[in-house]
Specification:
With 308 residues, the chain is an alpha+beta fold. The protein has helices at residues 24-47, 50-61, 88-100, 105-108, 143-156, 182-198, 243-262, 265-289, 295-307, and strands spanning 112-116, 120-126, 163-168, 207-212, 231-237. Strand 3, helix 6 and strand 4 form a beta-alpha-beta unit. The chain is elongated, with a radius of gyration of 42 Å.
């Protein structure tokens, strides 16, 4: 073999996996896709109708859909659900959501008003010139009025809260002659609402008052003949808070008042003055002792008086 010939070297590479690749790009890509999805959801919500927006908002507030069965809103056990001053806005929102599901809501929405007052939740159903919930000049409910009151009765009947019903009219006389007047009309309309609601969910003892005011409580004082003065009002009254909650609130108020009194500068500044006055009293004591005569000097004078 020639010495100048180079040896042939054969390299054999073993096949296999090229090693583990990093997955950080997958996390970044997932974040990007999530951000884009959130953007499109927001854009869709901004362009959607109000009922859709409220439905989506309600889902995020209660994803499981079980909060309404825990005695905090309308659905669930009537014994657990109590409408107080704190959760009355929840009842108002729930009733408004149910009313929006009615067929003719767009036509009726301007005649339905809910306000929270000192008595409770006041629901007013006002009339138009041609009649909205009642036949014109009659105590009979029409189809829209019946549907609305049945919807309210099914929701209000789940609660222990008491309800008052009021009837109102405008100042236009009912008839020139005869005994039937606005007093009878307002009372009959309130009673018609009571009968329908009690037949569709409201308890027999839940309605405590049915009152007819005729034109004595006008909605528009400057226009007594306005059709909106003709209305019925449902008042969902508050339920008093339990004694335990009252005691808790009173204890919190006492603690807060005690904390405020401890921070008052006047009381804190008065204490040093009292302390400063004490040394003055001590200093005055030697001055009081000086004018008193010594007891030893007084005894001889008494003895000398006896000898005399």
């Amino acid at each position: 073999m020639d010495k100048n010939t180079r040896p042939i070297i054969i390299l054999k590479k073993k096949g296999g996996h090229g090693g583990h690749h990093g997955g950080a790009w997958k996390v970044a890509y997932a974040d990007f896709v999530t951000a884009m999805m959130s953007l499109f959801i927001v854009l869709w919500l901004l362009s959607s109708s109000k009922p859709v927006q409220e439905a989506v908002g309600g889902y995020f507030r209660d994803p499981d859909g079980t909060a309404s069965k825990a005695g905090t809103v309308l659905q669930g056990s009537g014994e657990n659900f109590v409408v107080t001053r704190d959760n009355m806005p929840e009842l108002k929102d729930q009733l408004q959501q149910k009313i929006r599901e009615m067929n003719d809501f767009e036509k009726l929405k301007s005649h339905i008003e809910m306000t929270i007052t000192a008595e409770g939740l006041r629901i007013e159903l006002s009339e138009s010139a041609s009649g909205t919930f009642f036949d014109l000049g009659k105590p009979k409910l029409n189809s829209d009025g019946s549907e609305l009151l049945i919807t309210l009765a099914q929701e209000l009947g789940k609660m222990p809260n008491k309800i008052s019903i009021e009837g109102h009219t405008d100042s236009k006389p009912y008839a020139a002659t005869g005994t039937y007047s606005n007093w009878e009309l307002s009372t009959d309309r309130a009673n018609a609402a009571r009968r329908l609601m009690q037949a569709n969910g409201v308890g027999e003892n839940q309605i405590t008052q049915v009152r007819g005011f005729a034109d004595q409580r006008l909605r528009k004082l400057d226009d007594p003949l306005d059709p909106s003065n003709r209305r019925i009002s449902l008042i969902v009254q508050y339920v008093p808070v339990s004694d335990e909650k009252i005691k808790e609130t009173e204890g919190k108020e006492q603690k807060q008042s005690a904390g405020v009194e401890g921070k008052k500068p006047e009381e804190g500044s008065a204490k040093p003055e009292e302390k400063n006055s004490k040394p003055d009293e001590k200093n005055s004591k030697p001055e009081d002792k000086n004018p008193k005569p010594p007891e030893s000097a007084a005894k001889p004078s008494a003895g000398s008086a006896k000898k005399e």
